[in-house]
Amino acid sequence: MNVEDLKVELKKLIVEECDVDVESDDIRDNEFLIGPDSRLDLDSLDALSISLEVKRRFGKHIDSGNETRLALTSVDKLAAFIVAD
Known about the structure:
globular, mainly alpha
């Protein structure tokens, strides 16, 4: 799967797992997913849901460390985290 296809999958994952009122196509690659700057209004439970589903679908573990938490900043960062070795 190339990175652009991965980003499409991640956006769908976010919409499905977090039940946001946004179409997956409307999520920008670089917009904040979580926190006060996020228009998606995702919280820590949403972050946990995304993390668990990323682990299940892609085999990448997102733990509580700063480096991996940064993966949840945006779709761009999450895709880069998944494809990184």
